[in-house]
């Protein structure tokens, strides 16, 4: 195991291998999808018990996404100033408290506020995980690890509705939040015992508001970065259009019960995971920007087919599922590569850059989620939002990012300086270890 130079002697903790690091970071990132997806089978039940309209209940999902977006804008710069581990711990603690308070929420308004707080708590895992990856990797190496993260976090949408459905068989919708609270509780000791600090005091940035705004300003002046952030945001909007509408479309329009809905929804997440795990295979032959472009084209075409199937009813549920799964697979290919390309040139402010990326992703998702309900909460409404997100993502990619004009500098792993420290345990670094190249590249950039 190669010790990363960012890990101090006082911590006596070595950086985990790539696989273990992906599992650790994925556990924190998965808190977001679990919080979003696990209560989806209970939306109709919440609507009935709290005497709230379907659209109002869907706004609790919007509140979670808004909390995720706004929380990242604060937590990202904070992680650049105080390090990565403390914001992770604080986020898990806030999520735990909000989940327990849901158990006594008397109405939909209080539930909505608590869902916002849950979103803020999960924001720490979402943004800090990306920052840690950027602390250690860039280019293809970063895209590969993002793919592994997507595998771990992709398991959450597969399992979450099914777990939620099982919980609803033995208790009511509040029991879902008991499970979420238990998960957050497990994450607290993992923050300190298993995850090392990857940002030393010498590499931290000022926490002053002026410095933070200047950093955000410099990022917003980078046309390519802003374009890639929007591409990721509208891709996520397509996913959340599906998440927001699936419960009502599958259960009420097509008559699936809560357990079958969980299985069908999870099957869609399998295709999302398949896209993320096919990405490392593609990276052996193509650059991240090339794969991102191809995924955007494929996702847009599948989205247009999805609208046709929803409008005509051709094929029934199966006719709707096939193009939807194709959109999810295309999104799975796009999502690891967009942040890899966007963060490649911003290692000096990885937390802030990751925060802006994540905030736009979940902010656009929060804005788009109510559209499905506003358009009628049926298959055509869901298909329109999903396809619209992919169309806009492709348009921004072509008009703003212009990937064919980008240099290939960020696509290859960075060279190892001659002064890079050597491994003390292996002559040849293991495939699942953080090698000298990743560690030395960070030192060279700073």
Automatic annotation (TrEMBL):
Transmembrane found in the keyword field: yes
Name where it mostly resides: membrane
List the transmembrane segments.
21-43, 55-75, 87-106, 112-133, 145-167, 173-195, 224-248, 260-279, 291-311, 317-338, 350-373, 379-401
Positions of the UniProt region annotated as Disordered: 409-431
Concerning SUPFAM superfamilies, the annotation shows: MFS general substrate transporter
Q: PROSITE patterns, from UniProt? A: MFS, SUGAR_TRANSPORT_1
Domain Major facilitator superfamily (MFS) profile: from-to ranges: 19-406
Q: Name one Pfam family in it.
A: MFS_1
Membrane topology is: Multi-pass membrane protein
Locations listed in the record: Cell membrane
One Gene Ontology term, aspect cellular component: plasma membrane
Is Transmembrane helix tagged as a keyword? yes
Q: Which GO terms describe its biological process?
A: xenobiotic detoxification by transmembrane export across the plasma membrane
InterPro entries of this UniProt entry? Answer: Efflux_drug-R_Bcr/CmlA, MFS, MFS_dom, MFS_trans_sf, Sugar_transporter_CS
- Report a single Gene Ontology molecular function: xenobiotic transmembrane transporter activity
CDD domains cross-referenced by the UniProt entry: MFS_MdfA_MDR_like (cd17320)
Keywords for this entry?
A: Cell membrane, Membrane, Transmembrane, Transmembrane helix, Transport
> Which family does this protein fall into?
Belongs to the major facilitator superfamily. Bcr/CmlA family.
What protein name is recorded for this chain? Drug resistance transporter, Bcr/CflA subfamily
Classification from the root reads: Bacteria, Bacillati, Actinomycetota, Actinomycetes, Pseudonocardiales
């Amino acid at each position: 195991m190669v010790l990363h130079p960012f890990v101090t002697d006082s911590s006596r903790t070595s950086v985990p291998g790539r696989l273990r690091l992906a599992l650790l970071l994925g556990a924190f990132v998965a808190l977001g999808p679990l919080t979003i997806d696990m209560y989806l089978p209970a939306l109709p039940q919440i609507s009935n018990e709290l005497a709230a309209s379907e659209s109002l209940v869907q706004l609790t999902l919007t509140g979670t996404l808004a909390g995720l977006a706004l929380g990242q804008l604060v937590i990202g710069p904070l992680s650049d100033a105080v390090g990565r581990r403390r914001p992770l711990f604080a986020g898990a603690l806030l999520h735990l408290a909000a989940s327990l308070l849901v158990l006594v929420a008397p109405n939909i308004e209080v539930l909505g506020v608590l869902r916002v707080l849950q979103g803020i708590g999960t924001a720490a895992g979402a943004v800090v995980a990306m920052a840690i990856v950027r602390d250690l990797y860039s280019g293809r190496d970063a895209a590969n690890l993002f793919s592994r993260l997507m595998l771990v976090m992709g398991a959450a949408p597969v399992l979450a509705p099914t777990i939620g459905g099982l919980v609803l068989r033995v208790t009511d919708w509040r029991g879902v939040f008991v499970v979420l609270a238990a998960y957050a509780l497990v994450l607290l000791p993992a923050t300190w015992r298993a995850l090392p600090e990857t940002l030393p005091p010498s590499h931290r940035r000022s926490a002053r508001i002026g410095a933070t705004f200047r950093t955000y300003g410099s990022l917003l002046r980078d046309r390519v970065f802003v374009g890639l952030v929007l591409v990721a945001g509208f891709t996520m909007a397509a996913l959340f259009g599906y998440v927001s509408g699936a419960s009502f479309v599958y259960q009420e329009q097509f008559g699936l019960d809560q357990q079958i809905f969980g299985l069908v929804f999870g099957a869609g997440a399998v295709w999302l995971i398949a896209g993320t795990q096919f990405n490392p295979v593609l990276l052996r032959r193509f650059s991240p920007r090339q794969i991102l472009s191809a995924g955007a084209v494929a996702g847009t075409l599948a989205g247009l087919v999805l609208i046709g199937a929803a409008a005509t009813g051709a094929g029934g549920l199966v006719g709707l599922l096939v193009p939807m799964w194709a959109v999810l697979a295309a999104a799975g290919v796009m999502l690891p590569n967009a942040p890899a390309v966007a963060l490649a040139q911003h290692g000096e402010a990885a937390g802030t850059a990751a925060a802006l990326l994540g905030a736009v992703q979940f902010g656009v998702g929060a804005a788009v989620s109510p559209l499905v309900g506003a358009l009628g909460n049926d298959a055509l409404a869901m298909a329109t939002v999903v396809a619209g997100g992919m169309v806009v993502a492709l348009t921004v990619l072509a008009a703003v990012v212009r990937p064919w004009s980008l240099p290939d500098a960020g696509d290859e792993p960075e060279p190892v300086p001659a002064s890079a420290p050597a491994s003390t345990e292996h002559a040849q670094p293991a495939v699942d270890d953080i090698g000298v190249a990743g560690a030395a590249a960070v030192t060279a950039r700073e």
